[in-house]
Amino acid sequence: MPDYPAIWQFINDGDPYDPWGWQAEHVHDRSDSKRLILACGRRAGKTTAIKAEIVREALQPKTEQFGVYHAPYIYVIAPNYELTMKVWEPVWNLFVGDHAPLHDYYASHDKTRKLIQLANGARIQAKSADDPTALQGDRVTAAFVDEAHDLNPEAWGNFMPALADSDGRLVAIGIARGKGNFRTYWQIGQEADPRYYSASVTSLEHPNITEDALEEFRRDLTDAQFRQQYLAEWVEDDGQVFKNFDDCFDSEWESPRDSQYLMGLDLGKIHDFTVAYVVDVAKMQFVATDRFNGLDYTLLGPRIANLYKRYNCQTIHLDGTGIGEPVADILRKEGCSVSSFKFTNQSKATLVSTLAAEVEHGRVHFGKDDEVLKREMELFEGSVLPGGAIKYSHPPGYHDDSIMAAGLAVMKAKRRQGTASGVMKRDYVTFG
Question: Which CATH code fits 6-229?
């Protein structure tokens, strides 16, 4: 083992920490870099490396600036609270508690503020970028940023000046996506600036991930998503979400057979359309549809229920926001099994991503004459926001109702296929 801090033997869940090659080369051996920027593939093993560096940083001696000695003050940052806790909780468990492996270095904690104080005066504090204003005002000596590609510009602007004032250290890790601060810093690290170091780390750097495993991950992603999330490649996208979609419009609408069916339902609001799709789960084939607008939702229930009963659908999956729950209650009274899917920016992104992957790989079959869905796919666009999150949209005057209904049907059918085969697939796609 290289000459790393002896204290590290305690940080790997009780086992000795022996850094992998990329952890040593791109993280630990770069401890003198003031700006360490890494584009990492999913599952590359970044959490333990970050944890080790936080410990190293926290146990540094006080530094003098303008005649005043300052103990380390470390921020642990991620785009939202949940993601922050994924890094923060393993650090918390190292110090807090009588049986914590590094309890001898512990002084006190504030659970509400997510703050740990060490015996040497160092402070480690969790900070979520949900509230960017909470990232300003402190004299921070180091900031560890996880999922840095999704951090919004305001958040960067609030804590980076503090690092500049203290001559502090930034360690930022994310996937190769976005055109904001994270990518800018990564690009600077590829140049001759001695303060910056950047590198790309593929998921294959994890000793237990094989080429075969990567191929399994590839199945659930578009080509661009796979290259970004597992090969750590910066991909220039043309904005078109659905690739090769023409090839998927290859089937005929079918009468009910001895098959397993479910329905995806997007409910129209005022000028939008209500769209229902029935999909054959085993064949991932769309066999029936209904599309209309201007119908009072008290009359919508019997119409949709009729389609549901005709195909003996197992479940109707619908958008549970807005009028979703009242409509769901009406459908249940009509004898339908209903599952509510809450549309949020995050969940819609996952839905669209799942549909896009199935389309790109040719694993779904739409009706030959479904010109509405084909047109929606042709016009549907994705753009990367400055923070790295993806925004999906359709041109003014057009709709995405058919895409949302189709996406619900496909996503739920995929999960039903996995359950039926005895394999529970996890979702590997993460969006801002």
Answer: 3.40.50.300
